[in-house]
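Researcher: Next entry in the queue.
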Amino acid sequence: MTNRSDERRDRSEQRGSGRTLQRRALHALRKLTSTKGGLETGLRSARNAARYMAGRPVVRRDVFARKGGRGKRLGVFGLGGCDVRTIVGAGPILSRRHEGPLCIGSFGFAPESRSDLIVQTLDPPDPDVTADVSKELGLSGHYFAPVLFEESFTVPDQIGLGRWPKDVVVLSISSDVGRTVYRHKEHGFLVDPGGWWLAADMTDVLGDLSAVKWFAANFSKTPRISVDDSVANFERIIEEVRKRTGAYVVVMNVLTVDPGSTALDYKHANSPNRLRRREFKEAFSYLGQKMDFPVLDVDRLTKQLGISGQADFVHYTAPQKRLISQEFAGVLSDAGVVEASKEQRLVRTR
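Model: Structure for this entry, 350 residues:
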């Protein structure tokens, strides 16, 4: 008995030593290259592929992947900013309820996920027209592509994980509520430049304003998207997603920062942003009932734990992220996408 215990302890120490050496090697590589791209990305991708093939989960900020058993291959595709990334935290919960391979990925960024930008990808502008704009603004290669409406997806910068079906698609209304887009004066297409200038050295930006002048000469600011236009866009988006992928659609709402209020008439309200957020929340609650999709109620969940620790509307505290992840897993269980938890099964049998 003692010998077996010693052998297990030795194997555990060897694994721990191997992981320590791996972390030290990656740390040294980062110091040498001063970047997380290139060779290090390749090494991380190879490591994750090895983990995945060995049956261990691949866990990143924007993806959770597990090889699993012989069950159905289940893919969850989220499109949006930092709020959508919270669904990745549901990976460990869902992996206990789904026996087969599982991948939850959050793709894109807030500047790519306003509903009019998504609708635009259904009839994208001419690549010859957008090529120079994409280069100037540093837009991703798929910015104008209908990525959301493709039947399957892969995880960028990863090898060995393969393609995944879009069984579930997760969207958010946060970009519609808060972001501004610009229209090309000649060709009419829309862009959200995001913080492109923030990635550069500010002394270069301030010393040479040619990029800013170029943008002002070619683009004009559009008004904030209205609730009605947003709802109309989401209706079309959800219909197309369902038709092209067959996915189960979940939409995340937004924090209203109006705890305890149940008013529906805001004509005397003194906070336009608060009013806007409440109107969006109510509108999408009705749309969810009309189109039969669940609204992941981020507003209720974040307030349940308190919002004083939040940095802003879409960056949640660790306890809030855990609660949102648990709720998301519950939504998929209720829909029959994955097995229900023991607690849910008990409730159903009572």
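Model: The domain at 74-90+106-181+222-349 is CATH 3.40.50.1110 (Rossmann fold).
Researcher: Noted, moving on.
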